[in-house]
Structure formats: structure tokens, C-alpha cells
Design goal:
Keywords: ATP-binding, Magnesium, Membrane, Metal-binding, Nucleotide-binding, Translocase, Transmembrane, Transmembrane helix
Distance between the termini: 78 Å
Number of strands: 33
Strand content: 15-25%
Helix content: 40-55%
Protein name: Phospholipid-transporting ATPase
Family: Belongs to the cation transport ATPase (P-type) (TC 3.A.3) family. Type IV subfamily.
Low-confidence stretches: 1-69, 71-95, 500-512, 539-553, 745-757
Number of helices: 35
Structural class: alpha+beta
Radius of gyration: 36 Å
Mean pLDDT: 81
Largest sheet: 9 strands, antiparallel
Enzyme class: translocase
InterPro entries: ATPase_P-typ_cyto_dom_N, ATPase_P-typ_P_site, ATPase_P-typ_TM_dom_sf, ATPase_P-typ_transduc_dom_A_sf, ATPase_P-type_domA, HAD-like_sf, HAD_sf, P-type_ATPase_IV
Length: 1082
């Protein structure tokens, strides 16, 4: 249809013609001019555009949190563009947030808009050319460690405070800043290219001059946009027309709500009936749309065409919409744009994930503050001993600079490099294939988890529904008795075909009753759903309109049929009816066809459909049997709501409980036969409620509820969603590791295996949870923390995220959230550590998470092995780097005290730079390869994980222990040089520095628990490098002196005295008080 319209290029002149008054024309011209100035930066979701990208902003978000607008906000958000103000002059008072209001959108006439709307541009950049350098610097210097070294480095420009070469201070700091800026610049460039690519995507726009190509960023409210098959919807639109004969199309919403099942959308009836698509611009019609909302599952609007008599009005609902970020899966569609840019559903639901900082980073930051206090105290003591005479404040400043190495800047560099190495090891682990580390800054968090919050469907289960049971009240059918149902169904339709409507004659009355009940139950299940059978065409290009020839070429065989629905439960039920003999062969907007066991086609007219919602927890359909004219209302839903709808019975509640204990998902099916008068009365009231703009949902619900009285209970169905492989052993492992699991989903029988004798699992529904979170927040969290397991049934994404935040606030422990769907994203982003599973609900949770895995069972190895190693190695690495700075500062303190408290550096130039780089960097960094237990042992004894959550590997106790070690070794080296080299004290630099390097290499060997060949290589390489330096660096070392035998044995004695006692103490500790892991290793 669209091919008959001429194609014109995009016009650069945007002047428009409109048959209005000159005053109105001037008003719209002013609005256009203001719109050009109103190019506010837009943060738009990009997950629908590049699903495999790491810079992912996920949907939906839990809550719009108020941001604190400080300096950080200004640098990263508040000043993204010099022209980002609404007035173009940068005056903030005029940039108040525009109030969201309902709107009337005229088809094909964006110039008639009553107000200006946001541009449909995508902008995911964090900075711009003005704020990039200030923003990156702020993000770096908000850490105390980097800020401290910036101040120290700047002080070297003051001549009175200069104590060494500038490069000894600026080189490490410059390296850190340059590396960070390069990384951020690369990320920003990638975002810029991605935004430009998406904003430049061309779409076909229908105008009075024909079809013109328009960029995605230039689409406006009121434009008629044509979207081809497999093309992304660029903005929120109302669905007007499709090339499909049925007047409907399927869309993929996996990048919007995380669900991979296709959704059926219906075109507006009035516009679908137009002869050609070109007539959309010639009719006078408008769409009244509600104000922009976050809810992606509802929409209230009205379509009105007023150029005909009488005026045509149609109510619009979610079924008539095409939200941005969805993808058209069938046919070509035409829609009118109603929301653009930041007012689209996808952007309003976009949560901007905060930068997560690991607990170990916070602990290290606290330790650096303690070290800073130590620097001030030590400097003050040195000045006090020297005497507060003369320019003592200069001496104090110089001593602070001399002891600045107590706080090593290399600590941040080593930790960041270590985290990169840990992430690489995780992704290279063959035991957990497909694992991706998306946030490389928090791998050690995996070793500190106390609370694990998990989704159920698709995370713990396979999300593959299998029909298991049909219960009729007096008789129950399982998998082993499905042949009986098939026999009853065949018998029923055979007798009906021969003219008997009462069932088989010779059979007893009870038998006829069972046959009839089975027949009614199976027919109800086969009719009450939103499933559509889809057949692939033998030929034809994607997106081409279907012709009669193309339709005739479709293969209508059972093997070529695929069922599409918004829920896998629906598909499982329809597939089951097919196995027992009643097959759904076709469906469109108005009819549905079933094939009986005998091959007969039954046609039913679809009169009304009431879709499933999370509030109603049921769905219904009204159909008319074309062969008999009978009108029947079928309904199915959760037992909690259907119990009050169906007629009184004495078995439903008990059997629902029995099925739930078997882990089955239950649905109650009922029906009600209507007379023609009853249905006509209902249809009149229902259509009137549909046209209501205010409180439409309440009025529709009231009308539907009037139809639900006294329904006949037909059957109870049970569908099983089987657990993934090794879920139970993994859950047991997590529980033995001291991790408390909170599960989101229906209560499952497997939970009983994890409960202790005197403990109870807490099971709470979404409604009850809402009350608890609102009125009994503290009591609920206190109770939940005492339980070994908590199950929250049918809770919303907002509630999931709220539970995470409550645990963080009240318990103060580390939380981990794991899920597989878009509704889990808010929980994943709120947790200290988020894990996503790439499953059948799409990649949304996987891309939004910090870590992505392919199966739930992989979380055991991820936490027990990699979490343990990452935390233990990070703790050892950070403490050893601190020790490396403390020992040289202790030596500086002894040196200054010996030489009358002179503020003179012990080492200068390359020795200070080389000490933390080429001489000790490789052995110290090789600690990232160390491990205390083997992976097999960590998996076999998850109880070892409990010690990690206590944070004992890096605590004030271990910190002060390393302080004492550093003071002891620094003092021994300096005083040893005084005692053994009294006559050669002029060579104090060569004596002490050699002993210092050897001591550091031996301390690395002492710290290592499991040797790796790279560790040995690093030790030997550093030793060779230092020996070569003794020969080459003549300005620091006297070659004749260092080659003497006296120098060698005396240096060895000093080194031995500084290290041997520590080796002895470590041996005694392992012998008389060994750690738990060493007992298991032995």
C-alpha cells in the first residue's frame, strides 16, 4: 500500500502550511522557534538498540529517586550542554520542569500541537566537551587517597616545601589520571557514536506530499510514521494501520519488559478499514491521549474522526499502542506519534544505575584516613622533638611530605589492576562458561554476600511450562491418564457428529456425565486464552503485505504451526489441548477455529476479550458457537480471586493447596452461558464504559464484574515449571555458606528441604508485603532477617527493590540480587551486587547486572570460589601495598631522628619511583594469583564462606598488625645499618635500600599460601633487575663497596633479623592455631 505513494527527500525548509488564522499561524511559528531552542539533553534507553553493550540503562526502574544536586550532579548531569536550558540563555529559573498533561494529537499535523514536546533524540553521554575534564577529575578526587596526593604533589611547586624531584610525585599521579581519562574518553566516544547512529536512523513519514525519509531524532508528536518488519519503533505511537489482513500485528517487547513472548497489537478499526494508507493524511481525525505515564501495561485514549457524519469515536487501550524500543515482528505498520523523547514509556522507566563502590574500597578508604592521621601525629612528634623554634610550620609541612609514602598512591592502581585480573579469571573459568563481568570494580563483593534475593520463574526454573494435571472435582487426570481424556473427547465429538447430544446411549449415566465434563473442560481451555497460531510462509520478503497468493502458499500443517502468546502458561495449555485432540488451527480478531479429533472444524466468533492483568489476576473471553449460536463466557484465573466468582463447591480450595504443594501453577476455569438479550445488554454497557475518558478502568471493571456472578466451575489445571539443573544442591550450598535466600515467586515445595528443624520460612504475598513495607517496615525486616529463607509471592518490581534497600539500611549487610527478566532490573541495580541470567525472558537483566551467568547453578562457584579468591587476594594486596609504604616511612623516621630531626629525604630520585615499580611491583602484584584453598575444597565445604562475611581478612586488627611489622622491620634495617656499618655510614643508602628490597621480596614469599610459577618468575625478575641497578646507578651506589664480601654478609644479616622472627611466628601459628582452611587442606 505504501509503495503507491511518491517518495520525496527530507526538506530542509521546515515551514508548514495550515488552514488556520494568521494569529494562530504566528503562534505555531513561535512554538517552532522555541522548540529549536529547547534541545534539552535526553537520557534515553539504549538497550533496544545494542543488546550486547555494557553501557546499559535497564528497565523498568523501581522508583524515581530524588537526586541530590551538588557539585557531582552539576558536573555529570546538570551542565551537559551549553544550550541545554529551555530559554537558550542559561537562566535556571525558566527551566522548571514542564507539567505533564493529556494531549490531543491531530493525525499528520504536528504543527497543531497545543504545546511543544521534547525532541525524540537519544543522549546517553555522561559529559560534554566542557564538563569532561572537570567531571572526570571530580570523580577521581572525591576519593581521599587521590585528593591527598594531589595536594602533596602541588606542594612541590613551593620551594620551601620541595624535598625531591617533581617526577617522583607527579609521575604516579599523572599515570593514574591519564589512564582514567583515556578510559572515560573512550567510553564517551563510544556513547557518542552510538547515539549518533541511533539518532540518524531513517524512518518513512507519511505527509500530504507523499512519503519522506526522516531521522529518528526529527520525529515529532503528530507525525504518521511507517515502521517495517523487524524495525525498532522510534517513539510511542498509536497503531493505526497494518499490512496484515487480520488488522493486527505482533511486536517483540523483550527490551521493554524483558519478556520474549510476542505481544498482539490491534490497529484502530476506523483507519484499518481505509482503502489505502495514503488516506490517513486526508481524513480529519485526532487521538486524545492521557498524560505520559510510567506504566507500560496500560493506556487510556480515544480516537475521533469528525469529518464524517456521524462522528466516529473509538476507545484506545494498551492493545492499540506501539511503545518505543519495541520491534515490529510481523507486517508493516503505520502509527501516529503521541509521545517523544523523555516522555516515552521506555525513557520514563529508565533507571540510571549508580556507580557501585565495593565494601573493600570503603574499608581501604577508611584505613587511608587513619594513615593520614598517623602522618600528622608522626610529623608533629618530630617537630616537637626538634623544638618549636624558627619556621617550625615549614618543618611540619616538610615532615608531612616526607612521611606521605605512608599513604601509597600505588594502592589504588594495584587494586584496580587486580580487579581487572579477577574479572578476567572469572570469564576464563571453564566451569562457568558464558559468564560475563560487566562491572569490573566490585568482584571482591562476591565474597561478602549475606543476603541473596532471587527471582523464581526463569531464574530458579527453566521457564518451560508443561501441563501436568486436570482436576474435575471428582476425578483427577495426570500425565499417565491423558489417554482417557483423549478417549472421552473423541467419544463426545463422535456422538455429536452422529446427531446425539447426550453422549453414548448404552453407557451408564455417570459415564456420560464424566464424558460431558471432560469435553466442556477441554473446550474451555482451548478457547479461553490469547494464543495465536502462526504459520511461516514458503516465500515472500519480510514486511511485504500478504496477498491471496502468499496466503495460499502458507504451510498449514501441524509441524509448521507455532503458538505465540504473552505467557508461556497459555501456550502450554493450548499445546496440551492439541495433544488430547482439540487443536487451535487459526485465529484472527473476530474468529477462532478448533479442529476436533475427527477432523471437523469448529468456528467460534470472538465477541469480547478481557485480558489478564496483575490486578484482576484473571482473563475472560465471550464467544459465539457459529454452529449453534450459543454465547458462552469463559474465564480462568488464580484461585485467590476465582474462589469468590464460581458457584459454591467443597473441593476447589483443598485441591489448589494439593497442587501448590506439588509445585504446580494452578488456574481455575469456569464458564457462564448467556442469552442473546443478556449479552446485548452487557455489550451496550461495556462499550459505553470503554468510551469514558475518566476512570475508564474502574467503570470497565464494574461492568465485567456484573457478568462474573454465579459462574459454573469446570476444572482446575496444573502446569509445572521445572527447576533448573542443580538448583537444589546450589541452594543448599548457599545456605550452608551462611547466605540467607529471599525468593520472589510462588511458594515452592523445594523450600522444605532447606528449613532447619526449629526454623521457619517466611512466606508473604505481594499485597501483604505492601502493607508491611508501608506500616511495619522495621518489624518486617527484623522478622525476615531471623528466617533462613523468605518467599515473597507475586510482588512488583518496586517491592523487590524496596526489600533490597530495607535490608541494606536495617541489616547493614551485603546484598546480592539475581534475576532474568526486565522486572528484575530494579532489584538487580539496587543490590550491592547484581547478577543477571540470560534466559528466555531476554537479555535485559543480564545486561543491567554487574555479573552475567547462564544458569543459576553457576552462582555457587561464582561466590564460593571467585568471590573468596577476589576478596582474599584484594585484602592481601592492599595490606601489602600499605606495608610497603609504612616500612619506608618508618626508616625515614629513624633516619631523621638520628640526624637531629632533619627534614631530609632518605631516598631521592629514581630510587623512590623504582621502589614501588620495577623493584617490588611484580612480586607484590603476583599476590592476585594466590589462593588459600583449592576450588574443589571451597565448593565441597561452603561453610568456609561464613568467615569471609565477617570481614576479618581486612580489618583494623590485621591493619595494626601490619603496622607493627612495618615499624619493626623499618627499625631493624636502620638501626642494623648503624650497628654493623658504623665506619661505612656514608654508604647508608646502598646498605638500607638493599636490605629493604630483599626484605620486601621475602615478605611476599612469606605471605604466599599457594605458589604459582608466575610468582617465582616475578621474584627472580625483580631480584635480577635490582642487581643490575646496583651496577648501573653509580650516583646512588659505590660499585667497589657493594661488591665487597663484608657488605654482602652484613646486609644478609640485617635482612635475616628483619624477616626470620616473622617466619618463626607464622610457623608457630600454623602449628598451634591453624586456620580452618588449612585443616581441610591437610
Amino acid at each position: 500500500m505504501a509503495d503507491t505513494i511518491p517518495l520525496y527527500p527530507v526538506r530542509t525548509n521546515r515551514s508548514r502550511k495550515w488552514s488556520g488564522s494568521p494569529q494562530e499561524d504566528d503562534r505555531f511559528s513561535v512554538a517552532e522557534d522555541e522548540a529549536r531552542l529547547d534541545e534539552m539533553p535526553l537520557m534515553m534507553s539504549e538497550e533496544g538498540f545494542e543488546a550486547d553493550d555494557f553501557d546499559y540503562h535497564a528497565l523498568p526502574k523501581a522508583k524515581v529517586l530524588e537526586q541530590r544536586r551538588g557539585l557531582a550532579w552539576f558536573l555529570t548531569n546538570g551542565c551537559k550542554s551549553p544550550s541545554s536550558s529551555c530559554c537558550g540563555c542559561g537562566c535556571w529559573p525558566c527551566c522548571r520542569r514542564r507539567e505533564l498533561r493529556p494531549r490531543t494529537v491531530w493525525l499528520g499535523h504536528p504543527e497543531k500541537s497545543e504545546e511543544k514536546y521534547p525532541r525524540n533524540a537519544i543522549k546517553n553521554q555522561k559529559y560534554n566537551i566542557v564538563t569532561f575534564i572537570p567531571g572526570v577529575l571530580f570523580q577521581q578526587f572525591k576519593f581521599f587517597l587521590n585528593l591527598y596526593f594531589l595536594i602533596v604533589s602541588c606542594s612541590q611547586f613551593i620551594q620551601e616545601l620541595k624535598i625531591g624531584y617533581l617526577y617522583t610525585y607527579w609521575s604516579p599521579l599523572g599515570f593514574v589520571l591519564a589512564t582514567t581519562m583515556c578510559r572515560e574518553a573512550l567510553d564517551e566516544f563510544r556513547r557518542f557514536k552510538r547515539d549518533k547512529e541511533m539518532n540518524s536512523q531513517l524512518y518513512s513519514k507519511l505527509t500530504t506530499q507523499g512519503i519522506v525519509n526522516v531521522k529518528s531524532s526529527d520525529i515529532q508528536v503528530g507525525d504518521l510514521v511507517i515502521v517495517e518488519k523487524n524495525q525498532r519503533v522510534p517513539a510511542d505511537m498509536v497503531f493505526l494501520r497494518t499490512s496484515e489482513k487480520t488488522g493486527s500485528c505482533f511486536i517483540r517487547t523483550d527490551q521493554l519488559d524483558g519478556e520474549t513472548d510476542w505481544k498482539l497489537r490491534l490497529a484502530v478499526t476506523c483507519t484499518q478499514r481505509l482503502p489505502t494508507v495514503a488516506e490517513l493524511v486526508s481524513i480529519r481525525a485526532n487521538v486524545y491521549a492521557e498524560k505520559p505515564q510510567m506504566d507500560i501495561h496500560s493506556f487510556v485514549g480515544t480516537f475521533t474522526r469528525d469529518d464524517v457524519n456521524p462522528t466516529i469515536s473509538e476507545s484506545l487501550s494498551i492493545e492499540n499502542t506501539l511503545w518505543a524500543s519495541t520491534v515490529v515482528a510481523s507486517g508493516m505498520v503505520v502509527g501516529v506519534v503521541v509521545y517523544t523523547g523523555k516522555e516515552t514509556r521506555s525513557v520514563m522507566n529508565t533507571s540510571h544505575p549508580h556507580n557501585k563502590v565495593g565494601l573493600l574500597d570503603l574499608e581501604v578508604n577508611r584505613l587511608t584516613k587513619v594513615l593520614f592521621v598517623a602522618v600528622l601525629v608522626l610529623s608533629t612528634v618530630m617537630v616537637a622533638l626538634k623544638g618549636f623554634d624558627g619556621p617550625w610550620y615549614q618543618y611540619l609541612a616538610r615532615f608531612i611530605l616526607l612521611f606521605s609514602y605512608i599513604i601509597p598512591i600505588s594502592l589504588r592502581v594495584n587494586l584496580d589492576m587486580g580487579k581487572v585480573a579477577f574479572g578476567w579469571m572469572i570469564m576464563r573459568d571453564d566451569e562457568i562458561p558464558g559468564t560475563v563481568v560487566r562491572t569490573s570494580t566490585i568482584p571482591e563483593q562476591l565474597g561478602r554476600i549475606v543476603y541473596l534475593l532471587s527471582d523464581k520463574t526463569g531464574t530458579l526454573t527453566q521457564n518451560e511450562m508443561v501441563f501436568k494435571r486436570l482436576h474435575l472435582g471428582t476425578v483427577s487426570y495426570g500425565l499417565d491418564s491423558m489417554d482417557e481424556i483423549q478417549s472421552h473427547l473423541f467419544s463426545s465429538y463422535t456422538q455429536a457428529a452422529s446427531g446425539s447430544q447426550k453422549g453414548p446411549g448404552p453407557a451408564p449415566k455417570v459415564r456420560r456425565t464424566v464424558v460431558s465434563r471432560v469435553h466442556e473442560a477441554v473446550k474451555a481451555v482451548a478457547l479461553c486464552h490469547n494464543v495465536t497460531p502462526v504459520y511461516e510462509s514458503k516465500g515472500g520478503a519480510a514486511g511485504e503485505p500478504e496477498t491471496d497468493d502468499a496466503e495460499s502458499e502458507r504451510d498449514l500443517s501441524d509441524d509448521n504451526r507455532v503458538y505465540q502468546a504473552s505467557s508461556p502458561d497459555e501456550v502450554a495449555l493450548v499445546k496440551w489441548t492439541e495433544t488430547v485432540g482439540l487443536t487451535l488451527v487459526s485465529r484472527d480478531l473476530s474468529t477462532m477455529q478448533l479442529r476436533t479429533p475427527g477432523g471437523q472444524l469448529l468456528t467460534f466468533s470472538i465477541l469480547q476479550i478481557f485480558p489478564f492483568t496483575s490486578e484482576s489476576k484473571r482473563m475472560g473471553i465471550v464467544v459465539r458457537d457459529e454452529s449453534t449460536g450459543e454465547v458462552v463466557f469463559y474465564m480462568k484465573g488464580a484461585d485467590s480471586v476465582m474462589t469468590n466468582i464460581v458457584q459454591y463447591n467443597d473441593w476447589l480450595e483443598e485441591e489448589c493447596g494439593n497442587m501448590a504443594r506439588e509445585g504446580l501453577r494452578t488456574l481455575v476455569v469456569a464458564k457462564k452461558t448467556l442469552t442473546e438479550e443478556q449479552y446485548q445488554d452487557f455489550e451496550s454497557r461495556y462499550n459505553q464504559a470503554k468510551l469514558s475518558v475518566h476512570d475508564r478502568s474502574l467503570k470497565l471493571t464494574a461492568v465485567i464484574e456484573s457478568l462474573e456472578r454465579g459462574m459454573e466451575l469446570l476444572c482446575l489445571t496444573g502446569v509445572e515449571d521445572q527447576l533448573q539443573e542443580n538448583v537444589r544442591p546450589t541452594m543448599e550450598m548457599l545456605r550452608n555458606a551462611g547466605i540467607k535466600v529471599s525468593n520472589r515467586g510462588e511458594a515452592h515445595l523445594e523450600l522444605n528441604a532447606f528449613r532447619r528443624k526449629n526454623d521457619s520460612a517466611l512466606v508473604i504475598s505481594g499485597g501483604s508485603l505492601e502493607v508491611c513495607l508501608r506500616f511495619y517496615e522495621h518489624e518486617f525486616v527484623e522478622l525476615a532477617c531471623q528466617c533462613p529463607a523468605v518467599v515473597c509471592c507475586r510482588c512488583s518490581p518496586t517491592q523487590k527493590a524496596e526489600i533490597v534497600r530495607l535490608l541494606q539500611a536495617h541489616a547493614g549487610k551485603q546484598t546480592c540480587a539475581i534475576g532474568d527478566g526486565g522486572n528484575d532490573v530494579s532489584m538487580i541495580q539496587a543490590a550491592d551486587c547484581g547478577i543477571g541470567i540470560e534466559g528466555k525472558e531476554g537479555k535485559q537483566a543480564s545486561l543491567a547486572a554487574d555479573f552475567s551467568i547462564t544458569q543459576f547453578k553457576h552462582i555457587g562457584r561464582l561466590l564460593m570460589v571467585h568471590g573468596r579468591n577476589s576478596y582474599k587476594r584484594s585484602a592481601a594486596l592492599s595490606q601489602f601495598v600499605i606495608h610497603r609504604g609504612l616500612i619506608i616511612s618508618a626508616m625515614q623516621a629513624v633516619f631523621s631522628s638520628v640526624f637531629y630531626f632533619a627534614s631530609v629525604p632518605l631516598y631521592q630520585g629514581f630510587l623512590m619511583v623504582g621502589y614501588t615499580t620495577v623493584y617490588t611491583m611484580f612480586p607484590v602484584f603476583s599476590l592476585v594469583l594466590d589462593q588459600d584453598v583449592k576450588p574443589e575444597t571451597a565448593m565441597l565445604y561452603p561453610e568456609l564462606y561464613k568467615d569471609l562475611t565477617k570481614g576479618r581478612s581486612l580489618s583494623f586488627k590485621t591493619f595494626f598488625l601490619w603496622v607493627l611489622i612495618s615499624i619493626y622491620q623499618g627499625g631493624i634495617i636502620m638501626y642494623g645499618a648503624l650497628l654493623l656499618f658504623e665506619a661505612q655510614f656514608v654508604h647508608v643508602v646502598a646498605i638500607t635500600f638493599t636490605s629493604l628490597i630483599l626484605t620486601e621480596l621475602l615478605m611476599v614469599a612469606l605471605t604466599v599460601r599457594t605458589w604459582h610459577w608466575l610468582m617465582v618468575l616475578a621474584e627472580l625478575f625483580s631480584l635480577v633487575i635490582y642487581i643490575a641497578s646496583l651496577v648501573l646507578l653509580n650516583e646512588f651506589f659505590d660499585t667497589a663497596f657493594i661488591t665487597s664480601l663484608t657488605f654482602v654478609w652484613k646486609v644478609l644479616v640485617i635482612t635475616l633479623v628483619s624477616c626470620l622472627p616473622l617466619y618463626i611466628l607464622k610457623y608457630l601459628q600454623r602449628k598451634f592455631s591453624p586456620p580452618n582452611y588449612s585443616k581441610l587442606s591437610n
